[in-house]
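Checklist before submission:
- one chain only
- standard amino acids only
- sequence pasted in full

Submission:
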Amino acid sequence: MRLFLLGAIIVFAILLIYQNIQHPHTRHNTALDRLQHPLDTRLRYRIAELDPRFGLGQADLLRISQEATDIWKHGTGQDYFVYDPKAKLAIHLIYDQRQDESNQRRQQLSEIEQRQQHWNEQSQQVQMLKQQIDDKNSQLAAKKMQFEQQLAQYNQQVQQINQSGGLHPSQHEVFAAKKQDIQQHMWNLEHEIAQFNQQIDQLNQQVDALNQLNQDIDVSIQQYNIRFQPRLFDKGSFDGRAIRIYEFQSEDDLRLTLAHEFGHALGLQHHNDPHALMYPMLKDQQLKNFQLRPADIDLLHARH
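Returned file contents:
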């Protein structure tokens, strides 16, 4: 019996050593789990603390964490993780000032986007007004030419009448009507020109307001970029026993942050490829439908 127990202990010790070398992430599982599942090299994890101020439920976090582990599964063709409510490795979502900062970041970005949308709407109105003014300018130019021709004909007729000895009494009423018609056309043209000038003033005011809004947006973007630098992955951490997440901007952001910390749990360090999951900053990675980069795979192979 003693020999059997000694042999079992030796076999188990050899198995642990083998797992530590070939599958170093299994050391984060409990010894009992490794004893009960000697051939299962998946890293077991559970959800522990979840601050309700994040607005997520347990089911939401479980789904997102599984999607995070799927990034490694789909990128390597191997299952490295499994959820286990009794696991040693625990995920904690801890709300602190970093999440407040993230909320402010989202709010300010939303305000910038709203102002950009307002700028687009105002720009469209300015373009429409400019087109109306261009059309009106063409119409006024044609009316002005027509009036000048009409006035020239009238003056020519008056000159001919004066040269012929004056206006016959029977023509007084006709020429008086022509003169009144020319004056009415002149008044109408002057009125349209005045309205046209008002439209130009309105356009200039809208262009000034649009330029001012554009400057304000540029200032807001500069202030945003200064205040909110690319987000370090230290918003999450892994210490060998727990993954702690302190802030995220969206489910996509949380998913990638968890996947990054799962990478550390697998024993991976950071990489200098800015598009890699294991790059220390979340900046240039594709948040939606992210796929492991060759740099991430190389880190995984190099850990052995």
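Reviewer check: The CA atoms of residues 50 and 56 lie 8 Å apart.
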